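User: I want to check something. If I give you two sequences, will you return the structure for each one separately, not as a complex?

Assistant: Yes, each is folded on its own. Here is the first sequence with its structure:
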Amino acid sequence: MEPSSIEPFTGLLLTLNSISLPVAIALLVMIVLLISSALISGSEVAFFSIDAKDREILNAEKDPKSLRVLDQLVKPKKLLATILIANNFINIAIVILSTYIINNLISFGPNEEIMNFIITVVIATFLILLVGEVIPKVYATNNSIKLAKFMASPLLVVGKICSPLSNVLVRSTSFIDKRIKKSGTEISVNDLDHALEITDIEGVSDEDKKILEGIVKFGETDVKQIMKSRVDVVAFDEANSFSELLPQIIENGYSRIPIFKESFDNVSGVLYVKDLLPHIDSGEFDWRLLIREPFFVPESKKIDDLLRQFQESKVHMAIVVDEYGGTSGIVTLEDVIEEILGEISDEFDDDDIVYSKIDENNYVFEGKISLVDMYKIMDIEGEIFEDEKGEADTLAGFLIEKSGKIMKKNERIKFGEYLFEVEAADKRRIKQVKVTRKIELDNE
């Protein structure tokens, strides 16, 4: 069989040779290498796009493939080194094979070596980029867990084969890591807070600056500091009939209400008022069937983690429990967001119920107000209170902590440049406190 020739453009004579057995084998091997390159390139995106939520899913599945994926993610540097080494060797093999195939399949006329080189580079580059990089990485972005599971075992084998070389690469990067860590600057939350205090940002209002400060301190605040205490929570007993329940719901005006059995320490669920709407005219019915599963959180939980859990579980209220399992209070999504945006008022909020401002230096607070809210209202940092508050999170709790007793009406206590005077109290708690700041201690 004589080779056929075509003339694709003037001055170039291109001859297609017949496919021999070695060339056919080389073509098959090249196809296998391209598939391997695609899988390994895709696995790089698949493994390193697995986030914390995906890890939880894999850990919950408990099947061998999922566990192999998690095991390999424990050493990300070694995994990345294995993928890069394998991918580079495969791509080099593709270039060598493509050169061999083109040399044996095509014969050029004038400038044969130059044209052979150009076509080989173009074809090899096109195949590697499209088949070995772009397509698999696009697929891996949308199917990370599926591809990671599929490639977990092959990469384990490849990792053992490439282990000597990958270990050298990983160790060689330790020097760079150390230099980066030394030259890098660690910025603490206090540093960021201080930077906001001393920086005058043009065009940024006081309200925007407070939002930035709220974001900086967001991760330091725990649930206990912002929750509504159990003494202020409206909750109903399961034993109530619907006719008894309905007037109380209307009177209080809340959309979500904790339901308990016998004691508030035994919260059995949360009642969404909207679930009652279809039954308003039904007379007596078993409203307990509408109770939803409660969401419990500990007092010590940070509110940035709580916000993430609210988003993932799609709930707006959590029951706060103490270390003994008793109910401390409740916290809502609104409470969390207010730590960033400030107070969010609606038609049910009463601005005068928590505090009243007499002048710039004198305020009257309810004893149950949280220390965090007091700082915001008085526009103070509150660091001296935080250092001395102990386990207290409310103003009344702070005064009990400092005085060692439940203070009586008209009793006073000084702390720093602040004077606290109890204006209302009973045997069980401090109800109302007058706070004076910038006092002249010499005159007291």
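And separately, the second sequence with its own structure:
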Amino acid sequence: MFHVIIPARFGSTRLPGKPLLLIGDRPLIQWVWQCARASGATSVVVATDDERIRAAAVKFGAECLMTSPHHTSGTDRIAEVSRAKRLPDEDIVVNLQGDEPAMPAEVIAKVARALHEDASSDMATAVAPIQSLHEFLDPNCVKALLAEDGRALYFSRAPVPWPRDSAAAGQPTSFAGAWRHIGLYAYRVRSLLQFSSWTPTPLECAEKLEQLRALEHGMRIHVVRLAESPAAGVDTPADLERVRAAC
């Protein structure tokens, strides 16, 4: 049993009003909600601070909760919903970003199931193999370093692991064995609430990667290895047109 909470905000510097932009005959946020519903989740909730998103979500049949406009991250928003719904400490909540209309339902379920089966972990997420040197060098592609037992060691925007014997002129020439982080998270409710109570940590601030806060506080993150990356989310007008063309 797991729940999916979809944080969605109207303000976006690169694509204002993103959740309500149409893909075919449906707003983007409806596509995300449908992915979540298909995953077998016990409940799916849209969490927003914008009345326009709430109205749209209610219109297509979603449960929607209004949250504080002062949250700095989607994680804080889903923590508020978890408290409001009084979810038990051991329940599992999946944070599915509101700009992921093509996230496969089976990936959502797989990450939730992995956390359920690993009682020693506080969180779970996913990775996929990096496919090109360009991707490896791109700071917008977050890399993950994994232990042999499947837990996360570190996440970075830098090209890691650094291939010392395959570098020239200060640049890697190989990306073998590198993993791309997929921004999908499952939490035990107790871990989610604890995580959201902590202030940002030094590594998190340096890399601008929220999951590092969990690692700096000693949380264990279970990592699911996927065979390939799901289709990318929607951040820019070009992303939106790509998704529209695929639907």
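Because they were folded independently, the notes below concern the second chain alone. The first helix runs from residue 28 to 38. The chain has a mean pLDDT of 94.
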